[in-house]
User: What shape does this take?
Amino acid sequence: MPVDLEKILRPIDTPHPRFPAKYMTLANGQEMVIRQVDRDEIPDILPHVEKLMRVERDYYHIVSARVYAELLSYHTYRVQDEYVLIAQVDGELVAVVNGRIVNPDIGMSLHTLSMRRGLRVGAHAFAAKMEYHIDILKQKEVLIVAESPIGFRRWMIEYKLEKRFHIPHELGGCPSWALTKELFDKARNTLVVGRRPVPDHLLAKAKAAILTPTDPPKPPEDLLAATRSMLDNTGTSLLEMKKKLGGM
Amino acid sequence: MREVYVAGIGITSFTRLEYPLVEIAAYPGLMALRDSGIKKVDQLYVANMGSGRINGQTGLASAVVDHLSLTPAGAVTIENGPASGASAIKEGFLAVASGMHEVVMVIGAERMREVNALEATDFVATLTHPLAEYIYGVTLPSLAGMFARLYMEKYGVTSRHLAMVAVKNHHNAMDNFFAHLHEEITIAGILDSPEASTNNPFVADPLRFYDVCPVSDGGACLILASADAMKKIRKPMIRLAGIGQATDTHAVHERKDPTDLLAVREAATQSFAMANVQPGDVDVAELHDAFTILEIAESEEVGFFKKGEGHCALEKGETKIGGKLPINPSGGLKAKGHPVGATGVGQAHEIVLQLRGEAKKRQVENARIGFTCNFGGFGNNVVCLTFIKEK
Amino acid sequence: MELNIYGYKCRRCGHLHYPYKTICKKCGENDHNEFDIVPLPKKGKLLTYTTLYNPPSDYEVVTLSLGIVELEGGSRITGQLNIKNPKIGMKVAGKVEIVRNDEYKKHLGMVFYPA
Assistant: This one.
């Protein structure tokens, strides 16, 4: 009886308060909205994550492959108490962050995936995730690991996380680091920003559609090819580069 | 002395380049050879600051000359801190002007992103005084921070002026394919919004993140030739008309007034005198804005504006493209990038492009006289170049 | 024993140098390179300062305060600051302390406190 089996396989989420949407101004003057999304919006996010799996640079391939799996299992009810926040600029998807609620006291940060480099987009999204665990869910600490050196520098060093090496993290069983409420309070003034409520027009624009990232991370470019192409009037090297980048 | 002309130019993107340093140096060389139509050079100078320490490669010029199959031409590596690039151009100039060589290639190349940003900063910090500065943890950003603090107090420059330099240079870089940062920024985003202090945190108080240049890889090349050699090269006659170089105390605290950049003043004066032009004649300039405050301070020291009035000219938009004296149309070190050894050659590359009228969207109209200031150490070794386009 | 940072006083013209130079900057005479080693004064006024938010990686501190101090007698020195709210022109007093640990090597230098 398949229906009964599905009941066994599907975990039942514990009710939690939702993340209240917030917005902030980026260095380029654009407004970024960070909001929680439900299962129904996951299919709109997946294709953008999928493209990054082939970006073998700064660990985008492994992070996006894992995020893809996490979003898919969230969508098909195979993870308990997961949540997903996204950051959007003018509707365009610029970052995805997710995590899990282990128990009332402990949160598990899963991933931070930024689709636009620079401008602290990923950093703001990560801070929002920590804010959700500590301020909204009132948890005592969040367990964190980094998969990339960029992540390590950002999260472990900027927030000065504590070691919880005796606890294996859900991501690969690596030794965990923890952000406690005290550490978060110290970082609050410098790293955690955002204004609420989000003006209606910004929120409406964000909710209307999750638009394709316009400048997503790309595989390592053959930048010398650009120099070569300046000399090469047949343009072969530039064509080669475009082909490599999947542009044609 | 004979007159010396720019026969060819080449450049790579200033960004993170995942290529061996030798290739980063060789490609702009190839580009410049093709640009000039020359097949052989008499002498190669390669400007580089950190290959021995960062990339584990010494004797860079020997590697590059072979990579370009220019052997048996002479080859010399020149290390002169962040002023290596313009220093190498000076050596190239002397070699041609003296009559010893007809055609000389000058390449600047650096690959700093092979190590992380902290290591790169520490590597650059080794140019500070080892006993009186380095041991205290002094880095270039901290020297710039102390300089900026005093400068702002003395001349009424504010964080807003510094942000204006950054916004202007980021905007200019949008039209420069080879620039490191293609990212428009706004005063609201980095100064005024409630999130600005997080977007733009302090690096060395009062300097913030967007006041500091990025750490870049990159290379640039200039081929210099005598008037005789230029007869066979069908390129606009851009003459390297003036060169000035000056030094100042090694430790910054020994300077009588720490807000004076005497080496910049001296080098610029020499360069203008040699070219027989006035600072007011300059149509376009590339200044060494490793920190935004330096663009303002240098624009005064080289004589474009009176001391303490550089920020007023900036406010009025005089230094924008289209203004009275556009400064850093390439994006400057701030947005074009700062591969230390390559920077001086990169600045000259931009000026030659501008004088030839090949700078496309960021072209300064009717540019005839161009000027570069390549600032080594914290102002202890400065080279200024003046280029003139001949009819 | 009180620790000091030493300056180098030219035996011909009396100019006090810090750091050391082979030829005196003031008189420029190169027929001698003789200097008396004298302890630098420790009191002075703060000329300029900065707080470095990402100090070199061998430091275990989060921020590092640095400043240039004009010492009594007019010579100047770069040093670390241990001052809560520094102000240009304030009076400061220095102590010689460890300013950098380079593996087993400990570098001594001037650290300034409010006077």
